Amino acid sequence: MNRNYVFDFDSTLTSVEALDVLAEITLKKKPNKDQIIQEIIDITNLGIDGEISFTESLEKRINLLQANKSDLSKLIKELQKKVSPSIERNKEFFETYASSIYVISAGFKEFIVPIVAKYNIAADRVYANTFEFDEHDKIVGFDRENPLSVHNGKIQCLRELKLKGEIQVIGDGYSDYVTREAGIADKFFAYTENVSRDKTTQNADFIAPSLDEFLFVNKLPRSISYPKNRIQILLFDDVDSEVAKQFSNEGFSVETISKDSSETSILEQLKSAHVVGTQSTKITNRMMNAAEKLLAVANFSVDKSNIDVAAFKDKGIVVFKVKKSIKKNTKRILDFINSGDTIGAVDFPNIKLPAYKNTHRFLHIHQNIPGVMATINKVLATSKRNITAQYLSTDKNIGYVMTDIDKEYNPELIKKLKNVEGTIKFRVLY
Q1: For the range 324-328, what are the long-range contacts, defined as Cβ-Cβ under 8 Å and sequence gap of 24 or more?
Q2: pLDDT digits (tens, 9 = 90+) for 111-132
Q3: Which of 304, 339, 374 is the last residue of a domain?
């Protein structure tokens, strides 16, 4: 099926509202800078949520900005640093699907085109407003004939494009959603990586905390196989609150449970947990067995008695223990989730592979019995997959192998690797 992907710019492709950044530049030396910037932000939000007409929003912000054409080069430099993280790490998607991607924004071409050009989005696929300048290059207004300068301009713009095939709109604002409400867009993704607006998320077909989620839902190639927002971090409430902040800042879903909760309640929450963190709460074998998706445990206590390390090892679950720094211990969990590294694990062989571009990484945990590695590599060879990097480490009980391959793989390959005799856990990292 032919698909068209229509992206918003501000707070979607970039993590900021461009005119707010421009205000920081133009008002730098103004004594009432903070007051004016807050006024601009408020006007921006009112326009995005449809509380005032977009034309009015533009007029008021431009008047407050007092900007000049020379300020735009500074703005572009700043915006290049503010591309949304998941957009940046999925640059390949934009390069591969360039012929299906459009940018429709109520922002301005003068700064949008230079930013998206680095993502292989041509200028003729960018639909946005344009500034008007006076004889001294001061920004004095905008082209009022442009449909994107008025209320529901994105609807009109999409209608005029007459795109063939399914239309998916990705944006953070209500002005993006209305394309779906009007029946022009087939699906609307509320993009919440940078900002979440209730009025937008409440009406969305899908909520996308990152581009990874959008690509996952659409079964499109992506830099990571499983979106971070789908990875559930479950922390008992005796764990330092800073840990939850660190995981949340990385884009993971974090929940806290009271150690005083009933066992039934705890077991229910554990069903969806990929990582569990504890300080003093004992993680029983019954809890472990309930956590069918569990990949790792972070023990933030020097006391080892609260975790049956051997039992977790038999299940292929990696256990990390606290060091002097909570931040360091959390980072070890993050490195395991993001890269497969087991440095600092107390029950697993400690291995680390450098990150490789344009590869897929398979993590295979297995019983340390003869022939497993030979079988794994035979499966890869018969599937005509070239190994770009591989590292195996074992102890007397288990083996842990990280393998990077350089081509797209068939789902049948995964099935075969999971069925290798002695397999305990298998995971596709990216």
Answers
A1: 326/240, 326/242, 326/243, 326/300, 327/242, 327/246
A2: 999 999 999 999 999 999 999 9
A3: 339
